[in-house]
Design goal:
Layout (H helix, E strand, L loop, with lengths): L18 H8 L18 H11 L11 H11 L12 H12 L5 E6 L3 H9 L3 E6 L7 H7 L4 E4 L14 H10 L5
Parallel strand pairs: 1-2, 1-3
């Protein structure tokens, strides 16, 4: 069996530890976990009710296109429905983007450190990963701009950044976007 050479020996993704494991390991009775986009306050009553209602429709395959949600979000944002991507969490959307845009003759630019899924999925597609060191945990946008060339297909701005929790403010982000060269 032929396996992509770039994934041989690639370490598997390690999600954050479950709350119960952290409690046992550190001898704590209460842990508020924010590392995996978990909500310490629980779901809204509307979300819980929607899940209960959906549970009665398990005989029908779900709409993978997310048509109803797609149209409502497109209307709210003032964009065309086809301009939106929906997935089962950010990991899947990152995978979609990498699969569609990256190949061995392309590169991606990302901060270091940042969310590990950007690099992992780029490596799987055989793309070059250009990691730009963060400054005090914040993306160095100027250095990231310098790392972009005509083979760059994705520039990742994790906002707020994982793992630092720092963020790029709206003004700096808009200035960065205006400076990124458009290549088709």
């Amino acid at each position: 069996m032929n396996i992509k050479r770039q994934i041989v020996g690639l370490p598997p993704y390690k999600p954050g530890k479950p709350i119960e494991e952290v409690k046992r390991e550190l001898g704590l009775s209460k842990v508020v976990k924010l590392a995996s986009n978990e909500n310490p306050y629980g779901s809204s009553k509307k979300a819980t009710e929607a899940i209960r209602n959906a549970a009665s429709e398990t005989t029908i395959y779900p709409d993978g296109y997310a048509a109803e949600l797609r149209h409502k979000v497109a209307s709210k944002l003032g964009v065309k429905p086809g301009q939106l991507i929906f997935g089962n969490g950010s990991d899947e959307v990152i995978q979609f983007l990498c699969r569609a845009l990256l190949s061995p003759d392309t590169n991606t630019v990302t901060a270091d450190p940042t969310f590990s899924q950007y690099k992992l999925n780029a490596i799987i597609e055989g793309a070059e990963v250009r990691e730009v060191p963060s400054v005090d945990g914040v993306h160095d946008l100027n250095a990231m701009l310098e790392a972009i060339d005509n083979k760059t297909r994705i520039v990742w701005i994790c906002n707020p950044n994982n793992p630092s929790g720092t963020y790029v403010n709206e003004e700096a982000f808009k200035q960065f976007l205006a400076s990124v060269p458009l290549m088709y």
